[in-house]
Amino acid sequence: MTEQFTLSPATAPEYLRDRGLLAAGAGSASASSLGGGVSNRVVRVDLPEESFVLKQPLPNLAVEDDWPADVSRVHNEAAATRAYARIIDSAGLDDVRVPEVLAEDEDAHVVVFSHAPDGAVMWKRELLDGRVDADVARSLGRLLGTVHRRASTDEELRERFADPTPFDQLRVDPYHRTTADRHPEVGEEIRAEAERVLAADRTLVHGDYSPKNVLVDRGTGIRWLLDFEVAHWGDPAFDTAFMLNHLFIKAIHVEGRLDACIDAAGEFWARYEEAAGWDVERDTVRELAVLMLARVDGKSPVEYLDAGEGDLLRGISTRALREGTDTIDGFAGIVEEVAG
Fold first, then answer.
1. pLDDT digits over 82-108, tens only?
2. What is the pTM for the complete model shown?
3. How many CB atoms lie within 10 A of CB 107?
4. For residue 113, which of 73, 85, 99, 219 is within the disulfide window of CB 3.0 to 4.6 Å?
5. Terminal alpha carbon distance of the chain
6. Helix axes 328-339, 307-323, angle to 10 degrees
7. From the centroid of its chain, how far is CA 139?
8. Residues 147-204: tens digit of each pLDDT
9. Into how many domains does the chain fold?
10. Is 11 part of any domain?
11. Would you say residue 311 lies in a domain?
12. Is the residue at 39 inside a domain?
């Protein structure tokens, strides 16, 4: 394989055969595109008894604005997936899993993962349907706090994930800098937060810790965490803010589920604090305010919001930035007041 290889449902089965993952005589393989959001080509290949997920990053993300990114980030993702697997195993967390890395191609920039069980459903989908499960939020808070705490003393991980390039290209530039330019009234506050986040040097950060990257298997009770391409060594508050942001956004969007989403956010935060054992609440709230505005007016706006909801989120985030809110409860109070 060469770097010119383009992953697609048509090319994926032969690719697996060339890698020795698919027997030459396996003629019943079928392949389909899984989309991949705005940043990757993702293909699923199915056999009668197993399935594979192949991922290849796009050099320029599929959004309206120009958004280039280094394709080597997929190898960053493979390393972070392995790191999470080790920490989950060593911590004895029996309700969470990550995919297994089955192959990694440095030339074509393709990684092959195991596939989660077919019964697993994206947590984002459940939330948008109004099913707000606080137990999932608790599990994810405990997982994140455990990983952050255990990784923070691991010098090997610190060295491996020291390069901030994926984080800068995929988060700080499209979220912070772009939003600061589009909202000069709070631009100074956003740029200060960007500098703080980039300077942080504390632990392994997932970088995309959100409901779209969590699959919930109701049959087994297992939660599957995916998509580690933005993993880096940095600020734990970015991860906590990223998840809380999605829960608060859905509190605004999903009719009749304001209280349930706010309660889930509180449960997530409580379990995180308990597992991590450190205080990052103020940093989390500042980053949360920035991220909320970025998901309305940055390079990657949330796709399901209507104009009125976008205005509500702008009001919440700019108010939190100007008031310097320091607590999750304080931020939730702003959400409730604006939504009411």
1. 999 999 999 999 999 999 999 999 999
2. 0.92
3. 10
4. 99
5. 57
6. 140
7. 16
8. 999 999 999 999 999 999 889 988 999 999 999 999 999 999 999 999 999 999 999 9
9. 1
10. no
11. yes
12. no
